[in-house]
Request: fold
Amino acid sequence: MRFADKRALVTGGGSGIGRATCYRLAREGAQIVVADLRAERAQETAQQITDEGGHAIALTADVSDATSVEGMAQGALDAFGAIDLLVNNAGIAEGDDLLTFDESTWDLNLAVVLKSVYLVSRQILPGMLERGSGAIVNVSSVNGLTAVGQEAYSAAKAGMINLTQNMAVKYGPQGVRVNVVCPGSVRTPIWDGIVAENPQIFEKLTRWYPLGRVGEAEDIAAAILFLASDDASWITGQALAVDGGLTAGIPGLLADVNTDAGKEKETS
Ligand code: NAP
Reply:
């Protein structure tokens, strides 16, 4: 029970990676605040945890809105007294090709993906600093590490990595660790729109993954729990790619190098 007596707040806890994270945290003893945009989705996660004998409450918040976040954070603190673990997970991914999407799409991605980390963290951090302990795990993406399209989303995800580093360095001396995971393609509802247009998308993407499959929400939850746990007590400010090896190298380049090397051998 790595998280016995810990109180965790997970944004976007009503779906996908956030939901899997809530379930795993609860199974390892944490009490959970499930925060999400849609009350019924947060409630479903909290109910499942309660049905399994755990302890969870559901709260509604738009993480891109300061007033909404303030209300949600107050609700969390009123219910649990304090938050020991924060997972900034809520996100959207809108728009591809900056020449085609409009300014509102840019602003929406930056607000939901990046500004949200600032808004939620500034509500929860003060309590952690007061107690001299806490862990924050942000959920970025491989899009924040390298160019794979969706420029507004990707720029916001890259911003999360720098924000993580700054928070880690600034608040580490006061006992708060801050890390970030960068998932590759993970089978969750965030893909629903793309899957509707391209049902074979995950099969197509699989060939880019050295480990031979795309990710599942549980793969990311496992990494989030590690970084949130005392097993990672000497780790802060790190970006952990959880991506089946996607960003470890360039397989096409490797294939070309090997082919060319083979040809050279043949001709020599
Ligand atoms: P998901 O199943 O769509 O979950 C995202 C959750 O965030 C949803 O419940 C969503 O609510 C909620 N949300 C969206 N906007 C919000 C807002 N303004 N305020 C509060 N909650 C909001 O997607 P997921 O794949 O689990 O995504 C979780 C995180 O992983 C995201 O940050 C995403 O960028 C990141 N990620 C995912 C992948 C992937 O391939 N799945 C890869 C890399 C990174 P609604 O459903 O109501 O919109």
